[in-house]
């Protein structure tokens, strides 16, 4: 009996230590992503709690959250405590760069979804076990930034061991490399922190990239897109929203729109948008998923509709869509003095 009581007490102590460690990690994220309210949102703001969006028609909208408001919400609220439309609007307004890691962690809700399902050391176990895909992963990371090679390899191996059905397929490496670059602790670290604290930060960010990859592949359905090489642009709903003239052209050429777009839409925009614009789009993608990418693709097709409809050969149209559609659309947006992401989102 006493042995059982002693074991129960030890188990409780271990659980308390784990919870304390998780809380400490979350504090590290927020302390290293301090807000800077000097980073403005480039909008005309009046002195009240409203923002003027149309001077001529005297239209107003609530101000976006400041960096301090974002930080307070992340620290004190769960995702389901915020009204969906309000959260969506503020994410679309833009997330401050130095709050991005903490905000991504919060809006994906991986703490309450993915991380709660598994033991705290599962990631360490997954990356420590050899995988049948190790040779493919080694070959793949040679093409990536050498600074992140070891880290990307560990996360790819952990994923291959986690998702035994897929293991490793092309495209997962691009997602992981992007996340690793954006969440690199060296971009956010407070230099006053000790070396040990910095190491704990680095270790947690590695796990954060892993769980965010799980979120994108499973929750946002990119696993299916990469595995089956399919896209939501094949859905009837998307086809019905295409401009009639472009739909007619595609039927005339006897091709599918997905045959003309060479890569998944996430990579399509990453390739053609400037880094800061893609980062802002990715913020929204993490919360809204593929639907926001479809909406933006439609906007670029609408802007370029006259030019698109002049193509008579599939090969020429394919080159235009994959290399020129976005830059051409951006040039037209800039001519009407619109900020790109404000126009798109």
Topology of this structure?
Layout: H1 2-31, E1 50-54, E2 59-62, H2 67-76, H3 84-93, H4 100-107, H5 122-128, H6 134-141, H7 149-162, H8 172-182, H9 195-219, H10 222-228, H11 236-241, H12 244-253, H13 257-260, H14 265-272, H15 275-288, H16 290-303, H17 305-308, H18 314-323, H19 325-335, H20 340-344
Antiparallel strand pairs: 1-2
Helix pairs in contact: 5-7, 6-7, 7-8, 7-9, 8-9, 15-16
Domain Rab-GAP TBC: 94-289
Pfam family, one: RabGAP-TBC
Protein name: Rab-GAP TBC domain-containing protein
Question: Would you give an account of this structure?
Answer:
Helices cover 63% and strands 3% of the residues. By secondary structure, it is mainly alpha-helical. Strand 1 (50-54) and strand 2 form a beta hairpin. The radius of gyration is 23 Å and the shape is globular. The chain starts with a helix and ends with a helix. The model is unreliable at 1-9 and 37-55 (pLDDT under 50).
């Amino acid at each position: 009996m006493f042995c059982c009581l002693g074991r129960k007490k030890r188990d409780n102590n271990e659980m308390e230590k784990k919870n304390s460690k998780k809380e400490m990690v979350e504090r590290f994220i927020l302390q290293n992503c301090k807000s800077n309210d000097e980073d403005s949102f480039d909008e005309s703001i009046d002195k009240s709690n409203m923002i003027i969006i149309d001077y001529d028609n005297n239209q107003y909208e609530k101000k976006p959250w400041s960096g301090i408001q974002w930080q307070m919400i992340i620290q004190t609220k769960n995702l389901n405590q915020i009204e969906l439309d309000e959260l969506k609007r503020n994410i679309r307004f833009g997330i401050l760069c130095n709050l991005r890691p903490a905000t991504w962690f919060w809006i994906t809700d991986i703490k309450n979804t993915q991380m709660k399902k598994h033991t705290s050391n599962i990631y360490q176990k997954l990356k420590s076990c050899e995988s049948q895909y190790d040779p493919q992963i080694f070959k793949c990371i040679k093409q990536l930034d050498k600074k992140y090679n070891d880290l990307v390899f560990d996360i790819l191996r952990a994923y291959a061991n986690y998702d035994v059905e897929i293991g490793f397929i092309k495209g997962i490496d691009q997602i992981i490399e992007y996340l690793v670059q954006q969440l690199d602790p060296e971009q956010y670290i407070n230099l006053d922190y000790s070396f040990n604290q910095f190491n704990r930060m680095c270790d947690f960010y590695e796990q954060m990239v892993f769980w965010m990859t799980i979120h994108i592949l499973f929750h946002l359905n990119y696993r299916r897109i990469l595995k089956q090489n399919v896209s939501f642009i094949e859905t009837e709903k998307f086809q019905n929203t295409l401009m009639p003239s472009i739909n007619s052209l595609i039927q005339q050429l006897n091709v599918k729109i997905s045959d003309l777009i060479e890569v998944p839409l996430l990579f399509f925009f990453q390739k053609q948008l400037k880094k800061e614009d893609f980062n802002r789009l990715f913020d929204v993608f993490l919360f809204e998923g593929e639907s926001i990418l479809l909406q933006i693709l439609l906007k670029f097709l609408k802007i370029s509709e006259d030019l698109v409809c002049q193509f008579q050969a599939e090969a020429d149209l394919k080159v235009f869509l994959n290399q020129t559609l976005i830059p051409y659309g951006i040039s037209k947006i800039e001519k009407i003095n619109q900020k790109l992401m404000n126009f798109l989102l």
